[in-house]
Write a structure and sequence with these properties.
Blueprint (H helix, E strand, L loop, with lengths): L1 H8 L2 E3 L2 E3 L6 H4 L4 E6 L2 H4 L1 H14 L5 E6 L7 H21 L4 E6 L3 H16 L3 E5 L4 H6 L3 H12 L3 E4 L2 H10 L7 E3 L18 E6 L8 H8 L2 H4 L3 E6 L4 H10 L6 E2 L6 H10 L2 E4 L8 H9 L2 E4 L5 H4 L7 E2 L5 H13 L1 H18 L2 H17 L3
Parallel strand pairs: 3-4, 3-5, 5-6, 6-7, 7-8, 9-10, 9-12, 10-11, 12-13, 13-14
Antiparallel strand pairs: 1-2, 1-4
Helix pairs in contact: 5-6, 6-8, 10-16, 14-17
Amino acid sequence: MRAELNSISGPETVHGTAIPAGVDDRSTRAGALSVRHYVAGGREHGGGIGRMAGYIVDSFGKDGIVHVVTDTRGPRWFPLTSLPRLAFAILLMTRDRVVSPRRVHHIHVAGRGSTVRKRILTAAARRLGCRHLVHLHDYDYAADFNARSAADQAAVLPMFKKADHVVALGRRDHQTLTTVLGVDQRRVSVLPNCVPDPGGPRLRDNDETRIVFLGRLSERKGVPELLRALSHPTMMQLRWRAVLAGDGPVDEYRRQARELGIADRVEMPGWLGPDETRALCARADILTLPSHAEGLAMAVVEGLAHGLAIVTTRVGAHEEVITDGSSGLFVPPGDVDALASALARLVSEPETRRALSMQARAAYLAQFSMASYRRSLERIYETVTNGTR
């Protein structure tokens, strides 16, 4: 059983480097400000949230605030391993309260099962007196909350209302927090996702236009419509190749691509790490994400950073970061013809593609640089550590 618990807890990561669980950086013992992130799946299996947490950790570096990432679930939800992970996270939080009392606990939460786990974790933080902030990542938290029973809603509210601070990805989530969940707006900050600067855009001299999709392959992300749009007659007569990078039922979507006659032009490599994602985007021309629901998709911010021509939908905070016709193109969710038309236009009009690329890169530099994000986050941490309860 002891060996099993060791495999369940696994290593923590400080500045992206694995360290044994229970070993702290010396600066945390000396009383310096430090941060523990709680992410379901950690950096490696936490999807877009895990990737964002990883970017935060790497950004601060060894000369900045010490960051530790704790996995509260494991690669997938499975009671025999996930529940011990959650219990272990609470044990670490309890130890922190004694060993590193100034540590800020940065709790990343979404809807559904994530809310259940983080409700327990935030209750522990309140009981222990830990300074903590809740970072909301969800494609429609208002709908998730409204679908819950009255008793469940009452149990969820303290997670947000009693946190020292709450972070939202965009204006829609800010409104959800302050109106639906009743959080004091003075304790809510809007902080859109960001990515490290890849140094783009690069001059791309592709024989065929390269299209990328980043994210979990699913209906919510619009993958069925994307495959049908790629097989549309307007696209089949053009020169392009596509890479759909992400986890999910990859084999099923490969089967659909074969049935649609585009398997030789569409690659699905599965989930890619940050380095592989950067390399893929560096070779690409177009990023498409025809989602039905998002908060603020990391894929869209990646596309802006790399200066890609973006085709996406008006969901979540996308309209807050993209100007239609200038830094990207919007299509209605689920509209295969509109998606095919937008993609075909960008494939066949390199000048339009380049113009969108330049504006996308400019939008990234103006709003989504990692340096700007870090400054904003440091101010939030200062608010959390110096605020009164």
